[in-house]
Write a structure and sequence with these properties.
- This protein has 369 residues and is α/β, with parallel strands linked by helices.
- The chain has three domains: 1-73, no CATH class; 91-215, Beta Polymerase, domain 2 (2-Layer Sandwich), CATH 3.30.460; 217-369, no CATH class.
- The radius of gyration is 21 Å and the shape is globular.
- The termini are far apart.
- A hairpin with a 5-residue loop joins strand 4 (166-168) and strand 5.
- It has helices at 10-16, 26-38, 42-51, 60-90, 102-108, 131-140, 150-159, 192-198, 217-229, 237-251, 257-267, 271-285, 291-297, 304-317, 330-345, 348-361, 363-368; strands spanning 98-101, 121-125, 143-145, 166-168, 174-178, 200-201, 212-214.
């Protein structure tokens, strides 16, 4: 049995093994609850403790908080299911698969990664050629763009991999309509047609909603990896890393999953994000990854000097966003990863113009001044 790394924050130790919560004193439970709340993982913590039969060991105050998390999680699950059905009705006349991404996919597919997972919007993937038709259909059913600034509209429609977020005028729920998983301006652009071609229908909805699909298991892991390791903000870093952990545990039991994962990553030009995903899932969450898979992905990682630098950045940024988990170099790590994330999304001159506009010319910037 492997020993638990004692240097890890308490929440990560409990995510690795819920029995690490056994024997905590009142101060320990208070710290655990605060770290989970800061990571937006209270409902996930509830699921893990309940599965391990440890919920009754929690002090009364912690149980009250966790029961509130249960109520929020149950209401969230109902709202997600309802909203997905409304999206399906809105797009029913377009004769295209409704491919769910990220949290919505985990929830509707009944995956372990969806248990206790809360999220603020529903992401879907559609062909770029049908973006206008999809947007028009959603607008007819009450959704509207939340970005009215002309620059933001151009930024999304010409350079990004998605439409501006669309919010329902009555219910307030938000849809992100993607046509790819990385921006048009990024150096690496996985072919979205390959993702759509491999998408799988959700069998539980064959009668009520036959258009409902998710990405294939390997593609779901790769999208989760590229979303985490190509972004510049890590306020949900721990939660998203735990998504990867749970996806790998569940899909890893399928025949051929591990053998085919590195090859699929290279086919989609996502070898580097997969390398980081496996590396930090193992380091922080103890995810069991076959040695053969690690050897097959080793060449996709950076050279040793850069690897050491990225360890220094990611091993800080992926911790819960709570003061007890932060060190003196945490702000620097977050800042450097923010610059890196934007650098990966667009060329230098475009990035410079974009950051200047957002800092000094956008309505939000003017309001702040």
């Amino acid at each position: 049995m492997k020993t638990m790394p004692s240097h890890l924050p308490l929440l990560l130790r409990v995510l690795r093994d819920p029995h690490a919560a056994a024997g905590l004193d009142a101060a320990g439970w208070d710290l655990l609850m605060r770290q989970a709340l800061s990571a937006e993982m209270s409902a996930i913590l509830l699921v893990l403790l309940e599965d391990a039969g440890l919920l009754e060991q929690a002090p009364a105050a912690a149980r009250v908080h966790l029961e509130w998390a249960r109520t929020a999680g149950e209401r969230h699950a109902q709202a997600v299911r309802y909203e997905v059905m409304q999206i399906g009705r809105a797009l029913a006349g377009l004769d295209l698969p409704l491919i769910l991404l990220k949290g919505g996919a985990y929830a509707m597919a009944g995956l372990e990664a969806g248990r206790g997972r809360l999220f603020s919007d529903i992401d879907i993937l559609v062909p770029k050629a049908q973006l206008n038709a999809v947007e028009a259909a959603l607008m007819l059913h009450g959704w509207a763009s939340t970005r009215q600034d002309a620059y933001d509209q151009r930024y999304y429609r010409e350079w990004m991999h998605e439409l501006p977020p669309m919010e329902h005028l009555r219910r307030g729920n938000v849809i992100d309509v993607h046509h790819a998983i990385l921006p048009e301006t990024a150096a690496v652009r996985p072919d979205p047609a390959k993702l759509r071609a491999a998408a799988v229908a959700l069998p539980g909805f064959a009668t009520s909603m036959p258009s409902l699909h998710t990405l294939a298991p390997q593609d779901m892991v790769l999208h989760c990896a590229v979303h985490l390791f190509s972004e510049g903000e890590f306020s949900h870093g721990t939660r998203n890393l735990f998504d990867l952990h749970r996806l790998l545990l569940e899909f890893g039991r399928q025949d051929g999953f591990w053998d085919g994962l590195p090859a699929r990553a290279r086919e989609l030009e996502l070898g580097r994000p997969l390398f980081y995903a496996l590396r930090y899932c193992r380091r922080l969450l103890g995810t069991p990854v076959p040695e053969a898979t690690l050897r097959a992905t080793a060449a996709d990682g950076p050279g040793q000097p850069l690897r050491a630098l990225m360890d220094g950045l990611f091993l800080r940024a992926l911790l819960p966003a709570h003061p007890s988990c932060a060190g003196p170099l945490t702000p620097l790590a977050n800042g450097m990863l923010y610059i890196r994330g934007n650098w990966l999304r667009m060329p230098f001159l475009m990035l410079t113009r974009h950051l200047f506009h957002k800092a000094f010319l956008s309505p939000d910037a003017k309001a702040a001044h």
